[in-house]
Amino acid sequence: ANIGRQTRNMVAIILVTGGTGLVGKGIEAYLETVKEQRKALDETWVFLSSKDADLTSYPETRAAFDKHKPTHVIHLAARVGGLFKNMRQKVEMFRDNIAINDNVLKCAHETGVKKVVSCLSTCIFPDKTSYPIDETMVHNGPPHSSNEGYAYAKRMIDVLNRSYHEEYQCHFTSVIPTNIYGPHDNYHLEDSHVIPGLIHKCYLAKKNGTDLTIMGSGKPLRQFIFSQDLGALMVWALDHYESLDPIILSVGEEDEVSIADVAHMIADAMEFKGKVVFDTTKADGQFKKTASNKKLMSMHPGFKFTPMKEAVRESVRWFEANFDKA
Predict the structure, then answer these.
(1) Distance between the two ends of the chain, CA-based, in angstroms?
(2) What is the pTM of this model?
(3) Catalytic site residue 150?
(4) Sign of the four-CA dihedral 292, 294, 299, 303
(5) DSSP state of 306
(6) Which residues are bridge partners to 72 per DSSP?
(7) Is 190 exposed, middle or buried (0-12, 13-18, 19+ CB in 10 A)?
(8) pLDDT of 138-153, one tens digit each?
């Protein structure tokens, strides 16, 4: 049975926590493209930023819920960081994320929110696993030790979703995107993820006339999802995905690319003419983390992902235009 919002005749107020970050901006960009189609839906979108409320605080979280009175929540807010921050600050990563998730779901339950879609991360999957990884494997073993504080805190959302349903019949579910990139990403060199970090480095290499040096061999494989594609899929999940179990939001296994391929894509988009060099004295991290998108494709077969070259070009253009802010 589809009890998505399309079939419900009600005013919807959708609160997006972490709404000014990469994924929130992706949702906003997607909604802009379907404004006409969604006009008939009586819906208001509220994009909450950390400036509006400190979600590690229950009183502040509750005040935000009382102020906006959401009927639906897309929960994106998290304390995040790149590899090194995850390794250095495991206690803070664990405690802050546990607090944020606990407060958001508690307030959603207390104020009668009809549906919550929370955003997890592929780093929650077991480190020792067979590939491709699918949704049934989330709790099959410990996550990689480098970010276990963050990963265990994120896994607990899934536990809470089921518990809230069993005890209070709440409709809380979750999605697991692969590596996200796009405009409005965090482009700090130290604490950024792969694509924004490479875009920033390439920009500096071009400006300074130096080589573009990639940490590691460039051989590891990753699945990347453009933030606006993820925005479209988050809205789809809110409208149509009824299960409590997580669903992986990702391009297919066949669309996995190597870090080297991505570096060259970025260099092309930036018209960088220098050399791309791989510093093999630096560690590579996991070789692959292939996730299966079969569940998504079986439920949403018509969905078309933005071709990666095009999406990388768009991300590069945004970074160049916003270099001082980014």
Answers:
(1) 44
(2) 0.93
(3) yes
(4) positive
(5) P
(6) 14, 115
(7) exposed
(8) 999 999 888 899 999 9
Least Cα distance to 222 among 280, 175, 289, 278 occurs for 289
- CA distance linking residue 57 with residue 115, whole number of Å: 22
- CB burial readout 264-300, b (16+ within 10 A) else e: bbbbebbebeeebebeeeeeeeeebbbbbbebbeeeb
Q: Which two tokens stand for residue 124?
A: 């929650």
Alpha helices in 129-258 (DSSP H): 148-168, 194-208, 227-240
Per the residue annotation, which of 150, 181, 187, 203 is the catalytic one? 150
Helix, strand, coil distribution of the chain in percent, nearest 5: 45, 15, 40
Task: Report how far Cα 304 is from the mean position of its chain's Cα atoms.
Answer: 18
Joined together, the tokens standing for residue 309 give 């070259």
**pLDDT tens readout for residues 291-318:** 999 999 999 999 999 999 999 999 999 9
Q: Where are the extended beta strands (E) located within the chain?
A: 12-17, 43-47, 72-75, 115-119, 172-177, 179-181, 212-215, 221-222, 224-226, 247-249, 257-258, 276-279
Among 150, 126, 8, 14, CA closest to 70: 14
User: Could you tell me which of 76, 80, 65 has the C-alpha nearest to residue 25?
Assistant: 76
Which residue's structure tokens are 């018209």? 271
Per DSSP, 305 falls in state: P
